[in-house]
Structures are given as structure tokens and as C-alpha cells.
Amino acid sequence: MIKVGIIGCGSIAQHRHLPEYQQNQETEIAAVCDINQLRADQIAKEYGAKAYYSYEELLKDPEIEAVSVCTPNYLHAPITIAALNSGKHVLCEKPMATSLEEAEQMIMASEKNGKKLMIAHNQRFVRSHEKAREILEKGELGKIYSFRTAFGHPGPETWSADGTNSWFFKKEQAFIGAMGDLGVHKTDLLRFLLGEEIEEVAAFVETSSKENATVDDTAVCVLKTESGIIGTLAASWSYVAKEDNSTIIYGEKGILRMEESPEYSLVAQYKDGSVVNYSLGQIQTNDSGGQIDSRVIAKFAECILNDEEPAVSGEEGKRSLAVIIAALKASETKKNVSLANGVLA
User: Where is the Gfo/Idh/MocA-like oxidoreductase N-terminal domain positioned along the sequence (predicted)?
Assistant: First the structure.
């Protein structure tokens, strides 16, 4: 079994990493770390692990083979690099870094030390998304014309361990708001579904609903891929009634609707009038009754045990990060921003 340490014991660790490591037969939670000592002690007791109050001390533990980095965004890069340099494999939460330079340093540390670096983009592993990619790869929709994707909910205060005082709202710790929390998931999903890179970005990135925030809470982007597919991406913390986590792909021969219907996770509507409904399980949610296994931990364990390329590598994470950084720049300059293979042109 892989002995793992979880660095940061806030909401994402409590909702995702800790329970998924616990239920995975190939991993053992050996240590947890949080600067909030009471929280670290409580989590350690709950999972039968050793408690640390600084990540540096945890990384000195020779038993730990891999770590999850579940800290505020500004700490992702320094902790990940330190962990890789300490000989640990790393699963890092998204967005992987606060700049492309940091992301590149993380990738270099992984390569230099021969350790795995995986980014926790869970939308690739949603069953409806996997099935949609399969349909698209087979060419069943013909030429793809457009897309529309959205990820919105009432905001981190509804589930963050620190509520309205959460680091999510503080630019010096978060770097970016809804676009980094939610939008980066969708940039990664679009790249996964369409099988090509985003080449050009236009965007409005605003702070409109969260009075205490110094980061964005609502963003709408127009994206163009390498082959000329255009579409929109919305990311928001202002969807107060119900979460929206839907994606629609419009093609020459039909339309794919993912996570839009409350009854079917994927609906394929074809030009000839035929409709295929797929019941493939629910997408991840913190609401009761939602999916409890994002499959991220399982994929991370597999890549270590089988010595394989991570399902979402550091390079993949960097390219998805580049799109949201381009969106910020586009909003600030009021000009379209071009990308080339995960780098701002």
C-alpha cells in the first residue's frame, strides 16, 4: 500500500481526498498536516494518522511516499516542489499554480526527481464526460461547430471550512476566484473532450456578488480552438438557487448534452430526430446523494503503482491553467489573448 500524507485539512481534503484515500485499497493515510493544530489533530484522530503542523516536518517523514497538496492556491507550487525534491509523488489540487512560471518549475522538479506529478482535475473522470469523448472520437457528431459549458454555485462560503473568512476570497492567497476554482475545471474538460488546444480567449471577469472578495466571482469567456471551434465558458459563485455543471457540444450531426438533465447524465440528440439517453451516475457534488468517488485518488495510485504517466500530468495542468490566465489578461486589456501549446503567445 502507498503511504500518503495530506497537506492541508480544509474542505477539499475532507470532502474528497481523505475519504477517497480511506476507501482505496491501495493507499493508507499515514499523516495529515495543517497549520490549524486543532484541525490537524481532529483529522489525524479520525483517520488514525500522525498529525503535523508544518509541511516541512511531514516531508521529512521517510514513511510517506506520496502527498496530496490541498492548501490555498499560492502554496501549491512551493509545497509541491518541496515534496518532489523530498522524493514524494504529488497530487496537487487545482489550479496547479498562480503562474505559468511556477507550473513549469513544478514540472521540472517532477522530471528531475523522477516522481509523479498529477493535477486533480476530476471532470475528466466523470462517466458522462468519458462517454461523450468516446462519441466525439468516433466522429458520430461529424464536424464540431460550437460548445457551451458552465460551472457555478452559490460560492465557497457554503462549504469551505472557514466560511466567509475563507482564503478563497483573498487575492494574496487565492490569486484568482471563480475562474480558478471552477473555470479551470472546464478549460481542462474542453481540452479533454475536443482533443485540441484553446488558441484564443476573450473574457469578462468581474467581482459582482461577493462584497468581501478581492478576486473574481463571475466570469464569461469566449474560447476558440486550434481548428476554429468557438464557444462559451461561464464560471460563477453567484448561482444561488442550484449548481450548474453542464456542458453542451454542438456538431454537424447532432448535439451532446452533459449533466444538464436531472434524469440523464448524457443526452445525445441527432439530426435525424433520434435521441439516446444515458444514465451514467451523478457528477461530483458536495450535496447529499451525489457521487462520492471522483476517481482522482484511484488514478493517482494507479500511476504510482504501475509507473505510468499520470492521468492529468503537470503539462496538462499547465495548459489548462494557461487558459484562465489568458482570460484574466483578456478581461484586463479588453483584447483577445492568443495561446500556443499552453503558453501565452
Answer: 2-121
